[in-house]
Predict the structure of Dihydrolipoyl dehydrogenase.
Amino acid sequence: ASGSDDNDVVVIGGGPGGYVAAIKAAQLGLKTTCIEKRGSLGGTCLNVGCIPSKALLHSSHMFHEAKHSFAHHGVKFPSVEVDLPAMMAQKDKAVANLTKGIEGLFKKNKVNYVKGYGKFVSPSEVSVDTIDGGVTVVKGKNIIVATGSDVKSLPGVTIDEERIVSSTGALALKEIPKKLVVIGAGYIGLEMGSVWGRLGSEVTVVEFAPDIVPSMDGEVRKQFQRALEKQKMKFMLKTKVVGVDTSGNTVKLTLEPAAGGEKTTLEADVVLVSAGRVPFTAGLGLDKIGVEMDKAGRILVNERFASNVPGVYAIGDVIPGPMLAHKAEEDGVACVEFIAGKAGHVDYDKVPGVVYTHPEVASVGKTEEQVKSLGVAYRVGKFPFLANSRAKAIDDAEGIVKILAEKETDKILGVHIMAPNAGELIHEAALALSYDASSEDIARVCHAHPTMSEAVKEAAMATYDKPIHI
Ligand code: FAD
């Protein structure tokens, strides 16, 4: 019963790329099977990524607010403490509910779900080692590889998920570490560093590059780093980890300046390795059927998500492009639309990116550095949340909206927002960018008062004219 009949579409991997592709394919009337080895659907994102991290970010933020801000708002209680098992249980419940929800969506849409490890036998056959110990072969006219990504390991640093953890271990620590060292200042490291910092850990972030989150607009990045430093997060930039000693009670890291020089040591109770993610294709048998990959191990596809092997497609983290859940979902929908003979479209230049710290940082389109390097004449409009009435009313006014627009036409090129809810505010900008709007188009839309969104309108006014409130 496991889908040994011919399918129109077989999806390998049940993450945001794979499960969305499977549901969409079924909705388009295609006979569809999805193969997932994990035992639960939702991939990295739902099980050990986006969702559990946001659960812990929210819970830890509540604790931090209760401890440090509530009294200021006139809300007092004698003491606040962390119940870590309860915090973890709420996270686990959220994950379990959501992954089961996808199983429900599979049933509703009649997607056949096979639990097991898939590997290509031919371009139209996948052999699955099922979770219950059996083997079954799933055949399909079109096979979509959506196997996602895995943690990138660092040479000489062995992850044990206890004291030296990946993001997965960092989402399930049993105690609050006194000292946490984060290797890698990307968004995952900063989010997990924020969680444990709020709960009381001393957090030091070690980064090889000269900057945190390299993809961020430079001016916003500077303000962001300052905001994190105010929260007592320490940064050691241009620094590399050259040795790890786990023999003692604490982990001893040996550090060296990126350019070489004198070594120093740093002690930690827990070390989080978050130096990036790599495409995951182990055991898939891609070499057997001759699928082309790049040097980084990503599957090469054309604009229709087709690999060089007819009938074999790839989407999500396993192909080039932003390694984000919503990008994987867009890939999944477009890929099956093409398979079904319809038009599909994903524009990687308009994929929003969000760092879910406090404040959040969100962006869409180009950074000022990118616009400069393109040689385009541009204008910048900025508006600080310190001048936004809602942000002042709730006393959470750290942040800025920055809009870049083409000088001649006022067409929006990029929008960068640092604000408590930047991840929600960014979609107005994403919509504007997708519609090739000008900054004046945003400025002339009536925005409700008092809202954080008014800062977007004012920054838009500042781009081609003058803002009112500053
Ligand atoms: P995945 O989600 O990795 O799913 C691939 C699935 O394929 C896995 O479940 C795997 O078990 C399965 N699989 C692999 N090989 C096989 C095989 N041979 N047979 C059967 N099954 C197989 N992104 C965001 O957009 N927002 C966030 O806030 C965010 N937060 C994150 C936080 C953390 C800590 C991490 C680690 C990641 C985060 N991400 C976030 C990134 C996001 O999780 C990924 O971009 C997204 O999951 C990619 O989706 P995917 O479907 O391509 O792959």
Remarks:
- The longest strand covers residues 112-122.
- The pocket of flavin-adenine dinucleotide is lined by residues 12-18, 35-38, 43-45, 49-50, 53, 117-118, 146-149, 167, 188, 280, 284, 316-317, 323-326, 328, 356 (CB under 6 Å).
